[in-house]
């Protein structure tokens, strides 16, 4: 096989010949997009795999798979492609609202999820992330993040046909289906893993398997331990004595993306999922996909090239699909994954973590600084803002940002961990430690929003903190994402401790089954569920009707009060009305004084309650209160 030449035009004919030229030119729509994206894909392939003898052959196979996949793409999805093409900013609308749940825990099955569509509409969802639903090992499968087949749904929840039908039903209801693309690793039961261990030709290099400890020891000098409770370091030993790379659980083996056959194989799985009607792929663990000796093996430049290459393949064959990045890393690295050519969407772990930080410290300054400094994104992209996810909370703020405010990163993280697991005297939080590492002092925190915010501890600010945290996620810009059940204040579920497949993973404390009783209480103002639900749905309704909440533009605001987070969401121009968001993270009432508001005309409106405000009197916020106020700048 020839190598990819520097001049992509020179060997394009070879690639097309390999792919079977007619598959490419046969369909005009595909041909147009092929020509628009092939140069990019070729360049990325050359950068990643140019030195390998099989690079051209694998690139040709990717093109062939894309072309075949386009032909098989259902007409309704091609119509969706056109629709999105005509409205590329669709996901930046203020109507967007996400929900996330485990299929089995929340609804029993895919059929059960379909029955919940009326509820999703009641809540206002336009985006539904179903946690992993693919075939995976019995017992512990990391909540399905150990995938044994990307083409088979776990038979306990349904079938692939049902998933495709559900995607169509959801779309009919105005809801985009989001599923995980777990592409850093597979389970050890995946066919590729079995073949790799058995040395089946073509599969030997699908994973990173080493005969002895030499290379593992060398790599482990510079890589982090992600799940130290499961195994130290990044490798686990096979029965035959060899060692395989496993960043997460011992049964989750990292794929070897230095092998273009792995890229080709995963691109095929991605295209398959795209044709089931999935609209967003949540790109799991993006930071880990490329390894190089002597580095942390996280967020290496090649990780970005790989994502861009996957993206280019999609642009050819499933153009409406979006990528959402899951990078829970330093904020500089999080934004590096976000661009129209890479991941159009991304979790916002910094805002999430610092919302909790502000609630614990009753001091909004670190969150204020992050929102002013680290919120901006390139056009054509959006944050996914969440209060908590199915994972632990890690304190991913930048030490350099914190030190500007006189905060020491290491000791502050220790404080936050102590606070949120209830070890700090007087703490309102009832979280549980996750992956405490005695070697490094590192730890993360698990817990539901309600339990972390004080409802479990019967703290009087509990309900308001839950609402406040969501009010921030709903108003900074991007797609807000609710962990379903949190809108009715579900509490920690300690039942996982009695299930051996879950007991060692404290994240199960915040993945309770469907909280049916609390849902029944959602209209009862005497319950925490009812109070949270009423206030949260009022915010959701107000947001939907507020065009200033679309997009990502945000301007800071100095409320001159350490406990008050403040920012503005601009209108169409500098003179038009805008939304001023004020959030009091403190335990005492806080007043934003009249002179502080003097840049706005006196007549303002609280857009949630609809009441008029006179800014010449200042604005007083009750403890843990948030206000969304439409103000008009004075000329
Ligand atoms: C992601 C998932 C997490 C999982 C890990 C390994 O971080 O969110 O739940 O444990 O990937 O797949
Ligand atoms: C680590 C990883 C993150 C993952 C989490 C799961 O923090 O960086 O990707 O979600 O572990 O617990």
TrEMBL record:
Ranges for domain Glycosyl hydrolase family 13 catalytic: 102-543
Pfam families: Alpha-amylase
InterPro entries hit by this protein: Amylosucrase (IPR044077), GH (IPR017853), GH13_cat_dom (IPR006047), Glyco_hydro_b (IPR013780), O16G_dom_2 (IPR045857)
SMART domains xref list: Aamy
PANTHER family to which the protein is assigned, alphabetical: ALPHA AMYLASE CATALYTIC REGION, ALPHA-AMYLASE FAMILY MEMBER
Protein name: Alpha-amylase family protein
Organism name: Microbacterium deminutum
